[in-house]
Amino acid sequence: MNIIEVLLLAVALSIDACIVSFSYGLSIKEKRLKNALLLAGYTGFFQALMPVFGYYLADFVKVFILPYSKLIVFLIFAILGIQFIKDAITQKEDSINTECLSAGCLFIVAVATSIDAFSAGISLLLSNTKFLIPIILFGIITFINSVLGFFITEKLKKLNTKILQISGGCILIGLALYTILA
Fold first, then answer.
1. pLDDT at residue 97, rounded to an integer
2. Residue 172 in contact with residue 87, Cβ under 8 Å?
3. Alpha helix (H) residue ranges in 63-96
4. Which domain holds residue 156?
5. Are 179 and 73 spatial neighbours (Cβ–Cβ below 8 Å)?
6. What pLDDT is attached to residue 92?
7. I want to staple 50 with a disulfide (CB 3.0 to 4.6 A). Which of 9, 93, 114, 175 is the partner?
8. According to the model, what pLDDT value does residue 98 have?
9. Quick check: 46 and 113 in contact, CB under 8 A?
């Protein structure tokens, strides 16, 4: 792969993380910079790490994970979306849900948004592309797009928190459906 192909692949791989960050940005009102950077750090790191796994474990892992990858991503996004909606309905207007900002939740989100990067690692191997520069670009571009996705919501900050959180949940459920149907 040449550098243009790698950059286009990096942007394509970062879209899931950008959408998830947008969903988070809709409902998170406090410590926005810290939370945006935390989310972007997790997603960017795993977007860079998963291709390494794909590159080195292609034959072993693809037999177990790839047949179920769409289902795994679907379940993770659907559960997160339902949780966003449930929390919006059950919590008081002034309270904020930080449950999905725990290390465990961010780990799950990061893995879910980077499963397709595992396949990219296999592609790098099959195309005889050295993986150092692509994985760095995958991580950096995902980090940037995740932060951008989170802060695009600044234009929507005057809207009702519950509506924004329900919207974020609906986006995650939509992403889950898109993943399983695509």
1. 47
2. no
3. 69-90
4. 3-181
5. yes
6. 58
7. 114
8. 47
9. yes
**Burial 87-105, CB ≥16 within 10 A → b, else e:** bbeeeeeeebbeebbeeee
Total number of domains in the chain: 1
For the chain, how many residues are written?
Answer: 182
Q: Which two tokens stand for residue 51?
A: 């291709």
User: Cα(80)–Cα(162) distance, rounded to whole angstroms?
Assistant: 15
Ranges of residues in the chain whose predicted pLDDT is under 70: 59, 61-62, 66, 91-99, 156-161, 164
pTM above 0.85, yes or no: no
User: 31 vs 10, 28, 106, CA distance in Å?
Assistant: 28, 8, 16
Element (H, E) at 163: helix 161-181
Tokens of 141: 């571009």
Which of 176, 174, 159 minimizes the C-alpha distance to 25?
159
